[in-house]
Design goal:
The structure holds two protein chains of two kinds.
Chain A: E1 10-23, E2 26-39, E3 43-47, H1 54-61, E4 69-72, E5 75-78, E6 81-82, H2 88-94, E7 99-102, H3 106-109, H4 116-127, H5 132-139, H6 141-151, H7 157-161, H8 170-184, E8 188-192, H9 200-216, E9 220-225, H10 228-234, E10 237-242, E11 245-251, H11 252-257, H12 262-276, E12 320-322, E13 325-327
Helix pairs in contact in A: 4-5, 4-8, 6-8
Chain B: H1 2-31, H2 36-41, H3 47-56, H4 63-75, H5 91-126, H6 131-145, H7 148-162, H8 178-184, H9 186-212, H10 215-222, H11 227-265, H12 270-279, H13 283-311, H14 313-316
Helix pairs in contact in B: 1-13, 5-6, 5-9, 5-11, 6-9, 7-9, 7-11, 9-11, 10-11, 11-12, 11-13, 12-13
Classes of the chains: A alpha/beta, B mainly alpha.
Amino acid sequence: MTEATNGNDVALRIRGLNAGFRMSDGYLPIIEDVSLEVRKGEVLGIIGESGSGKTVTGMAILHLLPENAETKWETFDFLDLDVTGMDEEAFRDLRGNRMAVVFQDPTGAFNPAKKVGWHFHQVFERTAVKSPDHAQRAKGWRDAAIDLMRDVGIAHGENVLGQYPHQLSGGMLQRALIALVLAFEPDLILADEPTTNLDNIVERQILNLFRDLQKRLDSAFVFITHDMTIAAALCDRIAVMYAGRIVELGKTKEIFDDPKHPYTQGLLATALALEEKSGERLQEIPGELPHPGNLPPGCVFAPRCPHVFKRCEAERPPLFHLPGREVRCLLYEDDDVAGR
Amino acid sequence: MGFIWYLIIRLGGALVTIAIGAVFVFILMQLIPGDPAIAALGENATDENVAAFRRVHGLDQPLPVQFWIWLTGIVQGDFGTSITLAQGYPVWDLMVQRLPNTLFIAVYALLIAVVIAFFAGSIAALRQGKMSDTAATSASVLGISMPDFWLSYVLILVFSLGLGVLPAFGFTSPMVSFSGALVNGALPAFAIAAPMAGVFARILRAALLETKRRDYVTAARSFGFRDTFVYMHYIFRNALIPFVTVIGVQVRYLVGGTVIIERIFGIAGLGSMMVDGAFGRDYAVVQACMLAFLVFVLGVNLIVDIICAFLDPRRTH
């Protein structure tokens, strides 16, 4: 936090994001008090198991949650814009050209009634407002699309343009989707588990592609994943989410070397056991993720925490600011440097 | 390439269906009690007269022979001769006079239903849960639940007897005056269209709402495309596929509708001819009408399937 606030290289800054859904039986809160920052050229990983609220966080940032969603922000700065109370039409204009998403399921991201080429054509048309150069490029969108596809490892882009999405493999579609996102040259790229639906070999290729892109581009990346090894390989910093809250946030290496939050510790132990493939029984965190409508009264992780003590079951811990680290756990109350 | 094959297979299937349909139509007519000779000559006809009548019209032949004569005639374009309805007239000539009327009313009704459904379904889906949605959805239920013959009389009561703007009886053939057919056909076409419009609107609403939740719609919004663009090219475009499919399924109700409605509004069409023919035991007339309806339903279904194949590349590619 201290490092980020000085320059204007911060691409995205969120403070106090709350989001939930209006259901038939009342309001269901999903995420609470999420705060994060991403700088240009940096990769922030959001890690958590399914149901932890990481995708809701990502979709909330792009204003892409379903109609029954409600979001509240204390601060939402994007580049030099304060978009906290921006109207939807103005925000729509930011999507695509300034911020874009690579989705988990590439097959579902394409219009099944249109050829892949149609998608490129429309996207290049959309970028035409960015500059006269972009407008020029939109006219020759076929060549530009083929060039972009070559960049993401599609050798015969000219064939792909003439095909319908259902005629292509998941890996090919994910590359094509990444090429579409790259056509926008966005300042923020959000990738929501972009390799989960792909087989292992393709997953490795796509991850390499991301690593390559991240070196080449000046964009800020938010990489949502449940996989600790992917996070370790790609992310500069990571935010660990549990039951709709960020429980720990810091530099990737520091978190891996010295996880503070008991949940992070458990997650790392499980990942490590998986990696070593030791014959022993897999070390798991006992218990399961609480349902968002039925959270424990105190710390949300208290029922599963090996270090739980009395106060944990009564108090919702705030985020404590340690040097270079943020942790939502009462164990670190005394280490708080921000002083709350 | 794939499409040509698809078309050949579909056309072949339609031909087989027509052939099987012809057998059923023929058997069905024989199962109906009553004798064409009695219907034509009256209750007091002498046995000799009846026997002579049966001999002249080939009714004394064994059934398979009668069927064979009828079938080979159809293949050569001869649908036989009317024996009671219009004695001595070739059935084909009767059909040619009446077919345009029925086709006109059927297509008119179909268009009304599709246009109403297009607006009602779209408004309901776009404004889901709001007043206009409730209004459109309620109107659909009303349309589905009103029997077409009842609605016909209500329409006559309001528009003919009450407001006096549209005729209650009689019809101008579209071959004579197209605008006249449009005006005179408005009430019968609407009576047939109402229940179909209700079904179509509900299907379109459901399809639009279902499509709206698809991932590709979120992806389209993530590209920053305008709402109208996303609606037209993603939501509406993909919801059109189930919508058009249902139109094909519902076309059979058009046939049932014309049979009743043509009687009520006094339209000289195939439907009313079929009813008259059935009362007169005029086998050739009824069989020809039923075949015509079968061809019509299959034809519309084929057209619908071809449109669907164009709308949904997953079917042909």
